[in-house]
């Protein structure tokens, strides 16, 4: 199957990183979309309405009440997958990302998607320190998503009180996500580790050269991304006002 025959649902979850989320939508619209048959953006937002008063470039915007960090992230992911899976549209893959993730090399993304199709991988993501799977960016088939989501994060935390003490110190959300997936998949060979970002360590936590950025620090993001991004984006950056403003203003 050629990439032009592949339809994608993109889920973005946002609390307060509005500028990064809008830049991510620019990337999806101008770089991802021309590569595939269709890319629909589902934006799940639980920040204040005055932070983000109207839609930007997403197809669908859902607003949610504010919650504690982990519970809120879990709720937004669950709702995003619910909205995609109940949309009635046929998608080949669902890409879920935190607001501050920029996957800005479309050719690399296309290659990952086509590899997943050819090799029948049901999930593409990264190891988080060689133990658990990353959740800030992952690609999943709708069939697998139906079995994994909703994640019952709050129920698990309530049941096992020690996790309440630990959740601020370890990647407990990612651990629960990993356990759910492995229980369902049973075969780890159905997971594709993203080339160039197979494992996330402190050294590459927020950046993988020339294709991936998720910095929380705006200055560091610009410092890492700027040297090469113009050669990747070319003239398309002129059609990406939020990304342009973020990088050059």
% residues in beta strands? 15-25%
* Largest pleated sheet: 7 strands, mixed
What is the N-to-C succession of helices and strands?
EHEEHEEHEEEEHHHHEEEEHH
Find the structural class using helix and strand composition: alpha/beta
Summarize the structure.
The chain is α/β, with parallel strands linked by helices and 249 residues long. It has helices spanning 18-32, 69-85, 106-119, 142-148, 153-159, 161-166, 172-185, 218-233, 241-248, and strands at residues 7-14, 38-45, 60-63, 93-98, 102-103, 123-125, 127-128, 132-133, 137-140, 191-193, 199-200, 207-208, 212-213.
What would you say this structure looks like, in words?
- This protein is of the alpha/beta class.
- It has one domain: Spore Coat Polysaccharide Biosynthesis Protein SpsA, Chain A (Alpha-Beta Complex), CATH 3.90.550.
- The protein contains nine helices and 13 strands.
- It has helices spanning 18-32, 69-85, 106-119, 142-148, 153-159, 161-166, 172-185, 218-233, 241-248, and strands at 7-14, 38-45, 60-63, 93-98, 102-103, 123-125, 127-128, 132-133, 137-140, 191-193, 199-200, 207-208, 212-213.
- Strands 3-2-1-4-9-6-10 form a seven-stranded mixed sheet, sandwiched between helices.
- It is globular.
- The termini are far apart.
């Amino acid at each position: 199957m050629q990439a032009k025959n592949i339809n994608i649902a993109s889920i973005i979850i946002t609390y307060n990183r509005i500028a990064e989320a809008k830049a991510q939508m620019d990337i999806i619209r101008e770089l991802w979309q021309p590569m595939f048959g269709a890319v629909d953006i589902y934006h799940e937002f639980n920040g204040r309405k005055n932070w983000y008063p109207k839609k930007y470039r997403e197809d669908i915007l859902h607003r949610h009440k504010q919650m504690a960090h982990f519970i809120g992230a879990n709720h937004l992911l669950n709702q995003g997958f619910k909205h995609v899976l109940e949309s009635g549209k046929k998608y080949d893959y669902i890409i879920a990302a935190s607001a501050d993730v920029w996957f800005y090399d479309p050719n690399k993304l296309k290659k990952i998607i086509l590899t997943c199709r050819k090799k029948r991988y049901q999930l593409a993501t990264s190891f988080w320190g060689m133990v658990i799977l990353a959740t800030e960016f992952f690609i999943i088939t709708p069939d697998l998503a139906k079995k994994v989501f909703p994640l019952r994060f709050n129920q698990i935390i309530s049941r096992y009180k020690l996790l309440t003490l630990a959740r601020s110190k370890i990647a407990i959300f990612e651990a629960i996500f990993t356990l759910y997936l492995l229980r369902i998949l049973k075969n780890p060979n159905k997971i594709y580790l993203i080339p160039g970002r197979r494992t996330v360590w402190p050294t590459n936590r927020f950046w993988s050269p020339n294709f991936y950025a998720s910095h929380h620090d705006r200055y560091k993001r610009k410092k890492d991304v700027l040297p090469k991004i113009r050669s990747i984006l070319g003239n398309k950056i002129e059609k990406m006002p939020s990304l342009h403003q973020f990088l050059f203003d």
